[in-house]
Amino acid sequence: MRTARATSKPSARAARSTTKSTRTATGRTRPARCPDAGDARRGARTIPRAGSTFGRIFRVTTFGESHGGGVGCVVDGVPPRLRVTREELQFELDRRRPGQSRITTPRNEEDSCEILSGVGLDGVTLGTPVAVLVRNKDQRSQDYGEIAVAYRPSHADATYDMKYGVRAIAGGGRSSARETIGRVAAGAIAKKVLKEVAGTEILAYVSAVRDVKTTAVNHETMTMDDVESNIVRCPDESCAQKMIDAIDEVRVKGDSCGGVVTCVVRNPPRGLGAPAFDKLEADLAKAMLSLPATKGFEIGSGFDGTLQKGSEHNDEFFMDSEKGLRTRTNRSGGIQGGISNGEMIEMKIAFKPTSTITQAQNTVNRDGVETELKARGRHDPCVVPRAVPMVEAMVALTLVDHLMLQHAQCNLIDAGDLTELVQGNLPTLYDPEAIAAAAAASKAQMTTKDMSDAFSED
Prior knowledge:
By secondary structure, the protein is α+β, with helices and mostly antiparallel strands. Helix content is 30%, strand content 18%. It folds into 2 domains: 53-409, Chorismate synthase AroC (Chorismate synthase, AroC fold, 4-Layer Sandwich), CATH 3.60.150; 427-458, no CATH class. Helix 3 crosses helix 5 (180-198) and helix 5 packs across helix 10 (384-409). Mean pLDDT is 84; it is low at 1-22 and 29-44. Keywords: Amino-acid biosynthesis, Aromatic amino acid biosynthesis, Lyase.
């Protein structure tokens, strides 16, 4: 065991401890002061899915550890007869691949994907589970000798031990951002479904690194090429270099920094989401905060909305000659009452600084002894440039799952009407022509005002 980088500092608390530690099956010592974690495990019931599956109809299960044989996903619920190519998946995986530039981890992985099932020889989905595998090829497990016994501050090392009593030492296992390969591969399929069915486009970009922020990005006109035009993935060129400089500043010191990713959904389907517990923004928040290193989520006006009055914040409606009912502003971020209204969905996700840094930090080892840790290995000085495709993928997975749930609930509507629904062209109860037709059919005299009054009670 290496000791040069993890030097123990005896503490009064450790010296007074008389509780005996226990040995695991692997011979490692389990901390004696966490017996309640083991008691909880022994008395816990089996929980379905156990945290590695996302979605209800369009269901994604990711697998693999950072330094294992490989990582990937199994996607259930992919519609049949959808053309999906390996190149489409690989394009998205290349965007999150390590070693892209000096401001990302130098780990050199090709991240070449294999589609193992669910897609026929003609490149068309079969309606059966789609399995995608990416093999790990550049592991350096020897870099993780110190963290085998010493917990990295703000990393998942300690909490994984508390929960499971065992963990994948090299690279952080499932807590590593390498787990997101499966999400990005599945998200590429979800993007394809949304584009084919509803013409929906999802684009994310880096909007802040530390205190460098951009507010000059036009969400209506920005393109993928704009986002990919520089290594930090900020389409505002005047801010991009400042962001790169901010990352370089901490990188050369063996430190790290955080930032913000903004994501927009253009031409989203209307009617996605449900009241109460399955609100669309609630599921988007869960999806975003399930990503590694995320610490905050905003949609629409977010926290800034608390500074406004209702008369300032409300999005007034108007009738658009082409798209029907619309809002003049979009402080709601495209979602009202938990349901998408067809306006652009806009959200921000905050990412903390990477927890594994090469600077010396105080910590505690598995034996409960305070020590100093200077981590080795290859790590991102800032995660946000590579987080962009991860965010897009999780947004796509959330939206396509809600789209399929909407179709399942409204299965009396035929396929043609579904297309009208997601594109916002289906007449609603509040449509004057629909009201007039219904009134004529029933020989009733209900007016638009009567109908409005009938639905005005809260």
